[in-house]
Amino acid sequence: MTAVSHAAPSEISVRRPEAERMGFFTDTTVCIGCKACEVACKQWNDLPADGSQFRRGGSYDHTGELGASTWRHVRFVELLEPSPVQRAEAAAALARGEGGAVPHIPAAALADAGGGVTDDELPDLVALAQDGAGNGAAAGTVDVAAAVADMSRWVFMSDVCKHCTNAGCMDACPTGALIRTEFETVVLQQDVCNGCGYCVPSCPFGVVDRDHRDGRAAKCTLCYDRLQDGLEPACAKACPTDSIQFGAYDELVDVAQRRVAALQDRGLDGAYLYGAGDAPGEEIAGGLGAFFLLTEPPERYGLPAEADSPIQENVVPATVAAVGAGLAAAAAVALAFRAPQRGPVAGGALTVAAVAAGALEVVRDVRDGQRRRQRRREAGRRASERSSKDRA
């Protein structure tokens, strides 16, 4: 079994000797976008609805994104590939020195409107049913074959808090409202939260959000109350296709790696794990407690190609710089006391050497970070090329 990362024991606030790390494995290849996980999450955690109004050019994705009242969100990702004609037109425009243009996407525009549904946006469902939804089918029916074929243009992903090993939200919280449980999950105690909002920008995945009613932060708890009673989280319990799998983290990583291998053996070369199974030093946020099997580059799903806690990411160069400054100060003090015996040249050499050593460490760390980012960009590009070949 591949070695997996775990949180530092000193971070765990609740101790139970028999407890082990638990997590989510989300297989996007079997997600059907039904949103049963969203409904179960809201029902169990008593969260308000985000609206469910239909409009012309709209989407079934009413929730839009993760937020203070949406701890599970199913992303609808449409795989739009340009036609040969569009490619030729784009190439000709670039040859003429012209720039590109962003296409008008009604669904996106309506999703951002935020002002509710107007009368002219409401579709006439009766008329749609009578004319076969305008797809050439008989009145009152649906062309099932065409609908199934059209599904290949879509992928779905049920997004959730990642319960990172290096949790940026925990690092930034000044009150201790965010804690790591005995299951190595990250839980936000709303009765301790003071609403400062430091955790919001510290999450590289945009998960944590503040409630507009009282200003306190909120996010997925991985159903900590259910885990304490030995129950499966509500979202995983409701998933009809087992796209969301819950269990012991080490076992989930092994299951996920075997699933990727099986898909690749079947010709889906673009399948890979996001957030688990990475080489030491290459983990995303130290390793994700909720990780995913993807077939497209992570940016297609609204996920960053590289992510870490801002504090964890900057602690090494900051520490090295501080140590370098300390050494320089010590050398300066030694110079002041020993100048009559050794002369200014020897003391100055100590100072220069200390500063140079600190600067060298900072440069090395920056280079290592650049190499990691370059490797992730190359991996994303290869995944994109593989997924394009798979669809072709």
Write structural notes for this entry:
It is a single chain. With 392 residues, this protein is of the alpha+beta class. The longest helix is centred in the last third of the chain and has 82 residues. About 4% of the residues have low confidence. A hairpin with a 6-residue loop joins strand 6 and strand 7. The chain has 2 domains: 236 residues, Alpha-Beta Plaits (2-Layer Sandwich), CATH 3.30.70; 84 residues, no CATH class. It contains 11 helices and 10 strands. The chain is globular. A 4-stranded mixed β-sheet has the order 8-1-10-9. A two-stranded antiparallel sheet has the order 2-3.
Write the layout of secondary structure elements.
Elements: E1 22-27, H1 36-45, E2 72-78, H2 84-95, H3 106-111, H4 125-130, H5 144-150, E3 154-160, H6 168-172, E4 178-180, E5 186-188, H7 199-202, E6 209-210, E7 217-218, H8 224-228, H9 234-238, E8 244-248, H10 249-265, E9 272-274, E10 290-294, H11 310-391
Parallel strand pairs: 1-10
Antiparallel strand pairs: 1-8, 2-3, 4-5, 6-7, 9-10
Number of domains: 2
Q: What is the ordering of alpha helices and beta strands?
A: EHEHHHHEHEEHEEHHEHEEH
Count of distinct strands: 10
Lateral strand order in the biggest sheet? 8-1-10-9
Strand content: 5-15%
Query: Within the CATH hierarchy, at the fold level, what is the topology of the largest domain?
Result: Alpha-Beta Plaits
**Mean of the pLDDT scores?**
77
Number of helices: 11
Q: What is the CATH class name of the largest domain?
A: Alpha Beta
- The low-pLDDT segments are 102-115
Q: What's the alpha carbon Rg, rounded to whole Å?
A: 26 Å
Classify the secondary structure makeup into a structural class.
Answer: alpha+beta
Return the CATH architecture of the largest domain: 2-Layer Sandwich
